[in-house]
Design a protein that fits this description.
- The chain has 270 residues and is an alpha/beta fold.
- 45% of the residues lie in helices and 15% in strands.
- It contains ten helices and seven strands.
- It is globular and about 60 Å long.
- The mean pLDDT is 95.
């Protein structure tokens, strides 16, 4: 169902890879709600995914960009505002990657070159994106910037590895940059702490199926899906949330506030 929540609004969506990704689902919902946008991803990720299909479906253009490159980001922002015909109203940062996880390195045996690369891609890139937008004065007043995170930033999930540190840094960037962006430009910055979701990236974490099943048993409303997250994200892009900023918003069916569920008690009482 469409409510025209984003009619006339323009933006950039980072990280759409395939139809399983939250960014992909969000792009579809933004399109349904009347918003226009450019799609972007790193060139290597674009070769792995089907972003061309999404672009055609939503009538969007694609601008390849490495989110760790200030030069690429400056080019992206300049071209996006030119293509869309003005300043931006929303940006989605849906980027995360751990080389240590991909290479099977344990948290107690990190290769720090891998750590630095993962941190740059997953967290520092969020600062780089916002700094680029800020310096170019590319966001309209009351615009909204959202990044996706996970509760491993607050609680320990052993196999989430250094991605937990990356997410903690990401959330800190949202608060810190959110202060300056709100004070000086009236732009909102928030993170969404999503349920474990079977995206292509998420499934690369060891024991991910266990994460999902445990969270499902713990959450009073069950896990939030990628589609659910897309619905939530567009509310943050809309004018209905103009005074929400610098928040880490849990979107997890109640998992984050549940100590233990009856299902879990019964499972361990067998």
């Amino acid at each position: 169902m469409s409510y025209n929540l984003l009619k006339g609004k323009r933006g950039i969506i980072f990280g759409a890879l395939d139809e399983n990704s939250i960014a992909w689902k969000t792009a579809e919902r933004v399109h349904e709600e009347g918003g226009t946008f450019v799609l972007t991803n790193a060139p290597i990720a674009m070769r792995m995914g089907q972003i061309d299909v999404l672009a055609k479906k939503t009538g969007s253009e694609i601008i390849p960009a490495d989110a760790t490159s200030e030069e690429d980001l400056a080019n992206l922002v300049a071209k996006a505002t030119e293509i869309l015909g003005g300043k931006l109203d929303f940006v989605l940062h849906s980027i995360g990657m751990s080389v240590n996880v991909r290479k099977g390195r344990k948290y107690t045996d990190e290769k720090y070159d891998f750590t630095a690369k993962g941190w740059d891609v997953s967290a520092l890139s969020f600062h780089k994106v916002m700094q680029t937008l800020y310096k170019a004065d590319a966001m309209n007043e009351w615009g909204s910037i959202v990044a996706l995170t996970y509760m491993a930033a607050q609680r320990t999930f052993p196999d989430y590895n250094d991605m937990a540190d990356n997410k903690a840094y990401l959330e800190s960037v949202a608060r810190s940059f959110g202060y300056f962006y709100g004070k000086e430009k009236k732009v909102r910055v928030n993170t969404i702490s999503q349920s474990p979701t079977p995206t292509t990236a998420g499934q690369g974490v060891k024991g991910f199926d266990g994460f999902i099943s445990y969270a499902e048993k713990m959450s009073p409303l069950g896990n939030a899906t990628a589609q659910d997250c897309a619905d939530y994200t567009i509310t943050l892009f809309s004018d209905l949330t103009k005074k929400v900023t610098m928040q880490n918003l849990f979107h997890d069916g109640g998992f984050s506030n549940t100590g233990v569920s009856q299902e879990v008690i019964e499972y361990f009482s067998k």
